[in-house]
Each structure stands twice: as C-alpha cells, then as structure tokens.
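Why do we care about 3D structure at all? Because function follows from shape, and shape follows, mostly, from sequence. That is the central idea of this module. The next example makes it concrete: a single protein chain, its amino acid sequence, and then its structure expressed as tokens.
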Amino acid sequence: MKIALTCPASLPATQFGGILFLSIHIAKNLSDAGHNLTIYTSDLDFANNASTFNKKLPSKEKIENYSIKRTHVWFSTFLFFVNPGMYKQMMDDEIDIIHAIGVRSFQAFIAAIVSKQKKIPLVISDQGGLTTHPDLKKSSLIKKFLIKLQDPLIKFIIKQATKVIVANEYEKNIFKNFCDNSKISIVKNGIDLNELYSSNTNFSQKYSINKKFILFLGRFHEVKGVDTLLDSIKLIKNNILLNEIKFIIMGVDFGYQSKIEKMIKDYDLFEKISLIEKPPRQDVISAYDQCEFLVLPSKWELSPLTPLEGFAFKKTLVSTTAHGIPFTIKHNENCILVEPQNPKELSTAILDLLENEEKREKLGKSGYDLVHRECNSEQMTKETMRIYEQLIKDN
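And the structure:
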C-alpha cells in the first residue's frame, strides 16, 4: 500500500512534540511491515526555536524503511507553516491513501485538496484540541483573527475526510460538533517501546545530578502548568522529604522560559531545581528511567504521550483532571490526578508519592501493563492499518 502521511514537522525537529512522534511511529511500523510510506512535511529544524526553517535539510530523505519529503516554508504565523511546494510533491507521487495529522495545519489543507483531486481516501487526526486548546481563547486579537480565518479550511478538511481518527472519547466529543458519529473512530495513542528501551545514556552522570529527582518534561508554555508546579514546590521546599530530592524541569522554550526563571529566583528555588533546555531525545529517555516519578501539572492536554513514556519505565506521575488527561490515564489506577492550577493539591500529591514507595511501585506497574497491553505504537498502527484497508476496499 502507498501511504502518504502529512504533518507540520518531522525529523529532526523532535521537540515539536506529540503529533511528530505519532507520524513517525505510524511510518516506522507500517514501512517495516512492507508498505510504501512517505511523510510530507516542512523543513522545520527546531535548532533554537519553533520558527527555524532550514533549506539545507534534504528535500528527500530515507530513514530506515520510510521516506520524508520536505519543502521550504515560505512564511509562518504561529505554528501555521506555509509550504506550497508540498502540493506538487504529492500530486506527482502515486498514493493510495492520505493520513493528515494536525488538522489546524497548512499540510492538512494540502492533503485535503490532493485527496479531492486524486479521488483517494483521506484520514485525519488532530491531537491538538480543535476547539478546546486555551490558546484559541487567550490569544491576542491578531491571533484570534487568524484562527477565525482557519474555520473554512478546517470545515473543508473535515468534510473531505473519509475517516476521523481520535485518541479518546474526549476528542470524539469535539469532532461530533463537525461531523457524524459514524465518521469517527477511536485509536488510542501509542509509544514506541523499542526506541525507549534502546538508550545507553546516563542522565544523572551527564548533568552531574547526585540526588534522586522528580521529572517535569514538556514545552515551556503556560498551558503546561509549570507555574503551578513552582508554586507547589515553594509550599513544600522546607519539608524534610525534599532534603535529598531535586526537581528536573526539562523542555523547549515556547516563550515562557523567562517567567519560569523569574519564579525560580523569586521563590529562591535554585537549590531545588535544575532547568534543562532542548534536551536530546536520548537524555529524555534516560531521565524517564532514572527519575522517582513524573509531574505533569497541565492546564490542558488532549492525549498526552509523556505519561505513557514514563509508564514504560514503571514510573507513575502526578497530573491533573484537565480536559483529555483522565481519558488517557486513570486516578489511583496508574497515577494521581489533582485539580488543575491547585498548588496545594499538587504539593500534597507529590509528598504522598515521595512518602509511599509501595504506592509509587503499584501505580507504576499498572501503567507499565497499560502501555505493553494497549498504548504502544504496534497496537496503534495495527488498528490504524485496519482503517486504511477498509477505506481503500470501500473506495
């Protein structure tokens, strides 16, 4: 089968996050199974930020058994990357089915046009909270105007789509406002266990960390709730349980790092926190393995992959009940969930896990079982492939 995936970004821009990894996992697994698979994307490099586009990246690159085809971004506004050359690439290639990942993207719009012109099935996945992401409501007037301009594009993309794949019931309810329920299928997000178990990096040694540590991993963005985490650490920084504990805050700046640094200074938390920018993927994997547990205090998530990657190492987490999180991980089954933007609840939960090793291990083991049973990339791609095959049969 000749499968085209579209995504706003691909390798080497791993810091772009969830949808990039989703496309890579599908590409790797299905190409290993013998399918002809190409990712059509931009030339985002992410060398320093979310707007570094690199013409020196190869326009076509073979990675293992799949290909990445890149075209240069003419201009970008926020995370909307306009690379018109992708249209010609896709029209020139022989394609059986298209899967567009990231509905609010120029790449999904091109995918919908190509699907219509070639008369081939289009599958779409969003993973970005089509109408619920806080940025849609808290943006500047200019950004709100630009978001409004996207509305007809989104409606066209969803109308053209043969199938909408969502990660959970929360996302399904969002799309039910745009299309019939019969058009929507749930496929749980999965992580690549083989990749996670291949790291030989020693995180603590590399960063000279000589204490046990609790890990935050995510974009440095207001929506990730780092401010709530810092407020909670301030509340308990003198607790005896934290004497031999460090907090590692690790990620890529999306315009929020200066506030994080100011809060650390104002709260006098230098001794308690290490801030690590743009960590290589191998360092991230090693940090999962070596941490005590994770903290994900997000104000919004749709179907986060970070908890699942932590589960692969039997590490539980404290997170929140915001939006799609409880549809992905379960309170007192594999994690502890607290009210978002509630530092007192968050600090209490952190102390609870620090104090109770047996509870940490029990929750972590349950998470480990979940990712080996359901939420792994092999299972995800099997279910995705079944959808592709049915759509091509029906076309």
